[in-house]
TrEMBL record:
<dbReference type="InterPro" id="IPR006203">
    <property type="entry name" value="GHMP_knse_ATP-bd_CS"/>
</dbReference>
<dbReference type="GO" id="GO:0046872">
    <property type="term" value="F:metal ion binding"/>
</dbReference>
<keyword id="KW-0547">Nucleotide-binding</keyword>
<keyword id="KW-0479">Metal-binding</keyword>
<feature type="domain" description="Galactokinase N-terminal">
    <location>
        <begin position="3"/>
        <end position="50"/>
    </location>
</feature>
<dbReference type="Pfam" id="PF10509">
    <property type="entry name" value="GalKase_gal_bdg"/>
</dbReference>
<feature type="domain" description="GHMP kinase C-terminal">
    <location>
        <begin position="274"/>
        <end position="353"/>
    </location>
</feature>
<protein>
    <recommendedName>
        <fullName>Galactokinase</fullName>
        <ecNumber>2.7.1.6</ecNumber>
    </recommendedName>
</protein>
<feature type="domain" description="GHMP kinase N-terminal">
    <location>
        <begin position="86"/>
        <end position="171"/>
    </location>
</feature>
<keyword id="KW-0299">Galactose metabolism</keyword>
<dbReference type="GO" id="GO:0004335">
    <property type="term" value="F:galactokinase activity"/>
</dbReference>
<keyword id="KW-0460">Magnesium</keyword>
<keyword id="KW-0067">ATP-binding</keyword>
<dbReference type="InterPro" id="IPR006206">
    <property type="entry name" value="Mevalonate/galactokinase"/>
</dbReference>
<comment type="similarity">
    <text>Belongs to the GHMP kinase family. GalK subfamily.</text>
</comment>
<dbReference type="GO" id="GO:0005829">
    <property type="term" value="C:cytosol"/>
</dbReference>
<dbReference type="InterPro" id="IPR000705">
    <property type="entry name" value="Galactokinase"/>
</dbReference>
Length: 376
């Protein structure tokens, strides 16, 4: 077993954590100044850390062999590669922002499946950042840490991600979903306790070969930006649902029309989901999940057969609603099911996947959990 002591020869000074996330609804709305509604998962990245005085950061992972070292003074984008680019990026962005971090030994552990679209990369950045700050006893607002983590992923790692994942990892609270308005940069905690309603939020990793190539993501984003320019708005968030038909009539490109229709209707679905959850009507949120999936499949065109089969099978097994979640082209679905039917629903999906010759899926029950914190 890999422990901090076996890797570095001393006990850690502290242990910090940051969770992964799953987005309940609001897909591909973030870069359109829209609304999202993620929860933090109990699955998390844990960073054990000890300070060192030589300005060097040494990182190791319980899932990888060896130790990777880099000097804080020599950090610049591209200077550290592979998985260590994420802790290096966290150190780089904190120094760029003027925070007095020092050298450290870091051991990373995780029970977050990578490649499943549950934001393990954002969790790693956030966990590293709070560990490096915690070693120096520097307190920073969680939303500011989220913004710095996003900057690290954009500018150091080179991934053009939005802010939702980092905000969820830093700012979620247990028993709630994070209602995040990107345009206003405001958040609200919405009660979300499926267990109290006799429900389970199943997260199914469909194990599809991830086809979320940069070109596809960039094409979706470009289409949204082009349409916004034609319509004379700063972002598609500015189009009210009642103005959607008129806006679509002004677009000559059918692909752009479908992308716009998804974004505008998806933002409205987030608003409707929040209204229902605030009213204690969680069961009624299910059809919004299903409508979201249909929109992502038909208008945004980012599902794959594994996602569609998983959603259709969950619904046939009695799920109140189901949808793909995350960037698409692989990853996970979520299904809101009666707790008594959770095992039966997953078994039906396993059977359907075997019949289609797909890889064997895995599942977890998504309990809404707290954002980043110190463990020890």
């Amino acid at each position: 077993m890999t422990t901090f002591e076996t890797v570095f020869g001393t006990a850690p000074d502290g242990v910090w954590r940051a969770p992964g996330r799953v987005n309940l609804i609001g897909e591909h709305t973030d870069y359109n100044d829209g609304l999202v509604l993620p929860i933090a998962l109990p699955n998390q990245i844990v960073v054990s850390a000890a300070a060192r005085a030589d300005g060097v950061v040494a990182v190791a992972s319980s899932g990888q062999d060896g130790v990777i070292e880099f000097s804080l003074d020599a950090l610049e984008p591209g200077s550290v590669g592979d998985w260590a680019a994420y802790p290096a990026g966290a150190a780089w962005v904190l120094r760029e922002a003027g925070y007095p971090i020092g050298g450290a030994n870091l051991l990373v552990d995780s029970d977050l499946p990578s490649g499943a679209g549950l934001s393990s990369s954002a969790a790693l950045l956030c966990a590293t950042a709070v560990a490096l700050l915690g070693l120096q006893e520097v307190e920073v607002d969680p939303a500011e840490v989220a913004r710095l983590a996003q900057r690290a992923e954009n500018s150091y790692v080179g991934a053009p991600v939005g802010l939702m994942d980092q905000m969820a990892s830093m700012c979620c609270t247990a028993g709630h979903a994070l209602y995040f308005d990107i345009r206003a940069m405001s958040t609200d905690q919405i009660p979300f306790d499926p267990e109290a309603e006799g429900l389970t939020l199943l997260v199914i990793d469909v194990k599809a070969p991830h086809r979320h190539v940069d070109g596809e993501y960039a094409a979706r984003r470009k289409s949204c930006e082009q349409a916004a320019a034609v319509l004379g708005v700063p972002a598609l968030r500015s189009i009210a649902p009642e103005d959607l038909d008129a806006a679509l009539a002004r677009l000559s490109d059918d692909v752009d029309r479908r992308r716009v229709r998804h974004v505008v209707t998806e933002i409205r679905r987030v608003e409707q989901a929040v209204e229902l959850m605030r009213a204690g009507r969680l069961r009624d949120v299910g059809p919004l999940f299903t409508a979201s999936h249909a929109s992502l499949r038909d208008d945004f065109e980012i599902t794959v057969p594994e996602l569609d089969v998983a959603v259709d099978t969950a619904l046939a097994a009695g799920a109140l609603g189901a949808r793909m979640t995350g960037g698409g082209f692989g990853g996970c679905i979520i299904a809101l099911v009666e707790t008594a039917a959770a095992d039966r629903t997953f078994a039906a999906i396993e059977k359907a996947f075997a019949e289609h010759g797909f890889r064997t899926p895995t599942s977890l029950a998504a309990t809404p959990s707290a954002g980043a914190s110190r463990l020890a």
